[in-house]
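Final report, section 2: Outcomes. Of the targets proposed, ROT1 protein is the one most frequently requested by collaborating groups, and we therefore present its record in full.
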Amino acid sequence: MLRTLLSTLSAALAFSAPLVAAQDITSNATSLTGTWSSGSGAVVTGPSFADPMNNDRPFIYPSNTGISYSFTDDGYFEMAQYRFNANASRPDCPTAVVLWQHGTYALHPNNSLTMDPSPFAMDGRVQTQNPCSPTTNVLTEFAQFEVWNSWKIGIDTNHAAYALQAVDVNGKKPRMFLTVRPPTMLPTASLTGIFNGSIPLSP
Ligand SMILES: *[C@@H]1O[C@H](CO)[C@@H](O)[C@H](O)[C@H]1NC(C)=O
Ligand SMILES: *[C@@H]1O[C@H](CO)[C@@H](O)[C@H](O)[C@H]1NC(C)=O
Ligand SMILES: *[C@@H]1O[C@H](CO)[C@@H](O)[C@H](O)[C@H]1NC(C)=O
Ligand SMILES: *[C@@H]1O[C@H](CO)[C@@H](O)[C@H](O)[C@H]1NC(C)=O
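The predicted structure is given below as tokens.
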């Protein structure tokens, strides 16, 4: 898939006259639909990252930290994140944080994008692991409304990939690259409802 994208892009770049700047983020080069992943692409939404109804092993830890977002063209999003939080008093004890949620998103005329986990609020999970704390492993539900004040998609010629730059209240988020389209996601439905039998699995 990536290979196909790369060759498509190389072909497009070879035949279009002007050289695209290394980080041309001046317009939406493509649609938001798909799976986007930061850095080396270690964190990707979908079943390779999260198994939220499995309390014993709700996450498959990626090889590296990062963030990932997926969007469908019918209004659903999924988010995955793996990071370390530094501990100033114990520099040898960073806390590992993995989190996952899904829900619906909306695009607004002022170019903001909002993501609302409330339709599936019981599905999201966050797990923290502090190797130096007596309670080393804590798993709780997670549902956090998220706002991107703005976002743009350009072409990054260094990576030969579509690049998504989102800006939230803290400033620029890590740039993410289009990994796969259509997106890799868990079912865009209440997993809690499917799991507890209140929503039928298939028609
Ligand atoms: C953009 O629009 C959204 C949705 O209407 C709103 O919540 C947000 O405050 C607006 N942002 C700005 C900077 O006006
Ligand atoms: C990118 O696309 C979104 C959704 O169509 C639109 O709201 C936004 O204005 C576009 N941004 C730019 C810079 O074209
Ligand atoms: C830092 O580590 C200590 C020892 O494990 C722990 O008690 C404390 O809560 C940690 N602080 C933060 C901010 O995580
Ligand atoms: C089953 O899932 C539904 C949908 O998320 C939820 O509203 C309901 O509270 C759940 N019931 C139980 C017993 O967990």
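The radius of gyration is 18 Å.
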